[in-house]
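seq/struct pair 1
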Amino acid sequence: MRGENCIMKTAGRIAVILLAALFVLPLFSCRQEPDGESTGLPTEPPATERASQPGEYAEIDAYVKELAEGADTEGMTFTFIGRSSDNFPKEDKETGDIQSDAVYFRQRDLSEAFGLNWEPVITENGDATKDRVINEVTAGGSSYDLVFGNVITVSQHLLNAGVILRVDTLDDYIDLDRPWWVGSLRDVYSIGGKLFILRGDIAVENFEDPTCVMFNKTVCSMFSIDEEELYSLAAEGKWTLDEFERAASHIPVNPTGEGVFRYANFEGIEFIFSCGMTITKFDEDGYPYLEDSLPVEIVNLSDRTSGMFGDRTQTASWDWTKGESKTDVFGVDKDYDWFLENRALFLTASTGSAIGYRQFDVVFGILPMPKASASQEQYYSYADPWGSGSVTIPKTTKSIPATATVTEGMAALSAKYVKTAYYDMLLRSQSIFDLQSRDMLDIIFDTIIYDMVDLYSGGDMDSWGPLMNDLHYAMSYDNSSIVSDYKGNVRVTKYYIKALIKAADGME
């Protein structure tokens, strides 16, 4: 049986490598230009071609084997719960679907290495996930070993309910310094030195949720906007708000709404983070708090972004007559028809949206979010709080050492399979039109920014909470009440912060 499993394991790796080659080679042999013509591109493989680096895989395989040898997991059933998503394979077998197969290969290798069975429990949505886990744990049940869910809908509620474990005490089993975990977790999500949330390659959403700017190449051609200059500015660290506005100014204002817009569906709040600002502060003991008054640099930025995106002669507004969202296409919504129809230059989107847009007849490029100025040390891309994937461990898991060790093994195998499938194959290969966009994705993923405000925003599945919602409105539409709204929201939000701290302090 072990021999058969090894053969299956090797076959799975070969399948991933062959799939990578099939999708990468066409990309690097031709490129579609806005006019539909194809031109030659350099034929060298991507700089990060993990499918051709067996040494890296060997290191991960050896690490997982070492973890398994020290774990008491033989015969264990490892149960993980979450909404229907790409964290779960579509079927318990190889299907030819890149996303599903990557997760299937991960779970298959995990089972083989640890001698366990794995069982996914798929819920309708994040609210259903957190309700089932809270009810199960508070009743003393131990059905679930790992919980998948986004930060706002799942993690904040599980933490407030006190039903999850501290992961900073599990360093004998989970090595947060490994590259498959978000390196800033301790600095961003700790509460008084205690950490409860894990983020990294283990959740596929982390490859889909960083913000970026997409630009329409056809519109660039229509208005003589030099796309190579845009890429050069970004590569040289000079892609700033000034350059962003300068490029957009090539397009005249559009008072009738019949022409081309500069921007489509822009969410100005993303610019707080891209300009290197954060909302959450920490005191000397590591507890989160908000300043009583909104920092003046955010007020000034809001004045600027609301002037751009709130002006409907510059920014496309949703036409309700266009009907409902695009069906079954991730990241492509009814709000974005102008971009699809070559009637808008810039679009804020998540990186994962590029996978969805590639299915339509629109030719686009990808850029990082612009800096406040060229003196800003690096670019920053905010990890969207609804899309952002996180995992937590229920405190009633059947065996803490076994669960923590298996979670580490799953994360390591995610770096091998899931990251290869999503980042290298789907994002950096299939979903781009040029080599420069591939390089831009590397910049974006090197500088993702997180903010703990997600955890105490008071939001749920359909709402950001009053603080973030009012900031979003002020940054995107009208900032005239941003100062007074913030002062009122801070008083309310302090309740959520106190509840979060109380929950954290009550867990050891």
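seq/struct pair 2
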Amino acid sequence: MIDAAITLRRLVPVLSAAKFVIGMGAFMVIGLLEPLASDLGVSAATAGWVMTSYALAYAVLSPVLVSITGDMGRRRILAAGMALFAFGCALCAVAPGQEMLFAGRILASAGAGLFTPVAAAVAAGLSTPEQRGKTLAAVFFGLTLSQVFGVPAGGWIAYTFGWRVAFWLVTILACAFVWLLWIRVPRGLRFQPVSLRDLGRVLRDGPTMLAVLFTASFLAAIYVPFTYIAPLLSQTMGWGRDGITLSLVVYGCGAVAGNLMGGRMADRIGTVRTLTILAAAQVVLMPLFSLLPMPEPVVLALLVVWPLFGWSFVAAQQARLITLAPQAASVVLALNAAAIYVGAAIGSVIGGSVLSGYGLDALGIGGGVVGIVAVANILLSRKVSG
């Protein structure tokens, strides 16, 4: 008999730390975009597809992989997902060109797409409804912490030792967590099995899918400027390696604070109200990046406030989706995780188009315009499903 409370206390730190490694591997390309583009001899817009390919593959593979492994033990799934992620990162580290690099990113995204929703479902299933927001925020604390240390560290390593070294570091960390997950996740930990039929049922549920799509629209807005934040700050503010690293650290601090704030907001004022406030804040904040250059303290303050309201959405959105479809929590969370990367992919593509057509100065305005779509999305979703 598994004691849920004891298991939860043991698992949350491990799952959170594993999410740190996955977050670093997924998003550190934001900080190493320039050295990677220079080494491969491609433009910044083309290099942005290193993020986009990961996002698109995650969006397609995550729900399917979670559904077809729904009757397997959670320990086996979590360890297998991390192992596949490690292999994909290793492939990126040795890639001689774009083709193998993209293949490695696709494999890494498959591993992350298997691990992330299952980890969230395990944490949610072991927690009480009253504490679900805080528990999910605690699990995803590692992801936001990766924005403070992992992403800037990856960028700094890439500028100093080469972008391949950054991928090797993530590979080593991921391999360590394969072992740690295997020994820490209890044997026989299972929840209600899910299948491709459950995936199809959720996909046909209009109100639930509209709620899931909020994640995509919200993240799409953010990733219009964020994908190209390094060249944006480099060319408008004149920042080099150290300035870019500092800006990503500052951004990550705001993300961590936002993750904690979002869980508490959701528990206190409700998930829908929290998400509405956060979406509206993005519409106001992102156009400010089109006013660069500005005094450095102002830019650093903006880089704290922006993720404070951006990364607050994770726990609130997951808690809302579990409430809307409690019997298919794993599938819904997989679709939500996929929507995160759909949003990142769409935002990256829009950002690349804005960059190519209008220049760096237009990225903030482009993000604000897409943010209006996110506001409309949550208002309509609230009307449809509450």
